[in-house]
Design goal:
The protein is an alpha+beta fold. 23% of the residues lie in helices and 13% in strands.
C-alpha cells in the first residue's frame, strides 16, 4: 500500500471472531499486554469518515459482505516509538471479524510531531481505499474492485491521472477515484469517484442494491 504509514506489508493479522462490535478499544490481557480490538468510535474521525465512503463501494459491489472496520492492534515488539505506531498501537482496515492485510493507515508517531491521521481528506480517502483493497483481495481471494468496461482491477488515484502517474506527483490533484488502466491498447480512465461505484452498476444490479437498502 502506498501512502500508508507502515514500513512494509506485514501480512494477514487477526483471528476470526477477535473483533467484538461492543468493544470500545484495544484492552489488555492477563499479562497486561495490549490486545487487538475494534477501534473506539470517534478516535480517528478522518479515517472513520473515509472508511464509511469506501464501505459504500463494498456494499455496492460485494453483496452480503459485512462492512469493513478499523482495527487497533499492538505495535510489533520494538516498534512503539517508530513511525507508524501511535501509543504502541497500529490502526488497520479490517474485515468485520478483525482480520486484515497490509500496512497501517494512520500517519505517524505523535512523539515525533506528526499528526495521528493524514493531513487532508483526499489523502485519507486514498490511503483507506487502498488498505481496504488489499484486505479484501488477500482475504477474499478476488480482485476488487473491477472495472465494468474492461473487467480488470482498478486502483485509487487522483482524478485525471495518466498511465505513467507516480505517487507523490503534485501535478495530479483531483479527488480520489477508482482508476482503470484500460485494455491491451490502452485507454486508461477514471471509472468512478471512490464511494460512488453504485452508479456504475447495471440496471438489474442497481435495483437489487436499492431493495437491499430498504430492508
Amino acid at each position: 500500500m502506498t501512502g500508508g504509514a507502515g514500513t512494509g506489508d506485514v501480512g494477514c493479522r487477526g483471528e476470526s471472531g477477535r473483533a467484538e462490535p461492543e468493544r470500545a478499544e484495544a484492552g489488555q490481557d492477563e499479562a497486561g499486554q495490549d490486545e487487538a480490538g475494534q477501534d473506539e468510535a470517534g478516535r480517528w474521525p478522518g479515517l472513520e469518515a473515509a472508511l464509511a465512503v469506501v464501505n459504500r463501494d463494498v456494499r455496492a459491489t460485494l453483496p452480503g459482505q459485512e462492512p469493513l472496520i478499523l482495527m487497533v492492534t499492538p505495535a510489533p515488539d520494538g516498534a512503539a516509538g517508530s513511525t507508524g505506531s501511535y501509543g504502541g498501537q497500529e490502526v488497520y482496515v479490517a474485515m468485520a471479524d478483525g482480520r486484515s492485510h497490509g500496512n497501517p493507515v494512520h500517519a505517524g508517531d505523535l512523539e515525533e510531531g506528526a499528526p495521528p491521521e493524514p493531513g487532508d481528506a483526499a489523502t485519507v480517502l486514498s490511503v483507506v481505499a487502498e488498505a481496504a483493497q488489499e484486505t479484501i483481495m488477500e482475504l477474499l481471494w478476488q480482485v476488487w474492485p473491477l472495472c465494468r468496461e474492461h473487467g480488470i482491477g482498478m486502483h485509487p488515484r487522483p482524478a485525471g491521472t495518466s498511465e505513467d502517474w507516480c505517487p507523490g506527483e503534485t501535478a495530479a490533484a483531483g479527488p480520489p477515484v477508482w482508476w482503470c488502466r484500460g485494455g491491451r491498447t490502452g485507454g486508461c480512465h477514471d471509472a468512478s469517484p471512490i464511494g460512488e461505484l453504485a452508479d456504475t452498476l447495471r440496471g438489474k444490479e442497481r435495483r437489487a442494491l436499492r431493495r437491499g437498502r430498504r430492508r
